[in-house]
Amino acid sequence: MGALRSELATRGFGEPAIDAAIDELTESRALDDQRYASNLVQRHLARGHGPGRIRQELKALRVEAELIDAALDDGADWAALCRQVRERRFGTDYPADRAEKAKQLRFLQYRGFSADHIRAAWDSPSDADLPWED
After folding, report:
1. Residue ranges in the chain whose pLDDT is less than 50
2. Distance of CA 1 to CAs 27, 63, 80, Å?
3. Beta strands of the chain (E only): which ranges?
4. In terms of Cα–Cα distance, which of 65, 63, 52, 112 is closest to 85?
5. Domain total in the chain
6. Are 57 and 91 part of one and the same domain?
7. How confident is the model at residue 129, as a pLDDT?
8. Quick one: what percent of the chain has pLDDT higher than 70?
């Protein structure tokens, strides 16, 4: 609602008119930040984005932190999604060398996955078993 309030203020509406409009929209459930946050999370999940990237966008849209946390904690398996994104982009084979592994890690970080999600998604028995380890 913070973004809507700011937008209406920049368009020249007074504070009483803004409050009345927001109250009316909230009462009719036309304006629901929790539903908005949940829908945005679902859209990003479909695109293969991780929680870091989604959180950043919701913060930029001035969604309250509690609503962001609730929307992100709503049952998504981030490690499984991270694994799917990696396999869709790079295939199921493990990287052949350190440079390829670094490339894949950077890609997953850019998509918004944490180090824990990436580690869990890697699904490797151990780094010692990878072909480029001595």
Report:
1. 125-134
2. 13, 7, 32
3. none
4. 112
5. 2
6. no
7. 46
8. 89
Sign of the torsion angle spanned by Cα atoms 22, 26, 28, 34: positive
Please tell me the pTM assigned to this model. Answer: 0.74
- Helix or strand holding residue 42 (H, E): helix 33-47
Residue 37 C-alpha from the chain's centroid: 10
Report yes or no: 36 and 70 within 8 Å, Cβ to Cβ: no
Cα-Cα-Cα-Cα dihedral sign, residues 108, 111, 116, 117: negative
Q: Which of 29, 53, 72 is the last residue of a domain?
A: 72
Sequence-distant (≥ 6) Cβ neighbours of residue 81 within 8 angstroms: 45, 48, 50, 113, 117
Q: Do residues 63 and 102 share a domain?
A: no
Distance CA 18, CA 6 (A): 9
- Scan for tokens 């309030």, then name that residue: 5
Q: Cβ(53)–Cβ(44) under 8 Å?
A: yes
- Over residues 31-54, the pLDDT tens digits come to 888 998 999 999 999 999 999 999
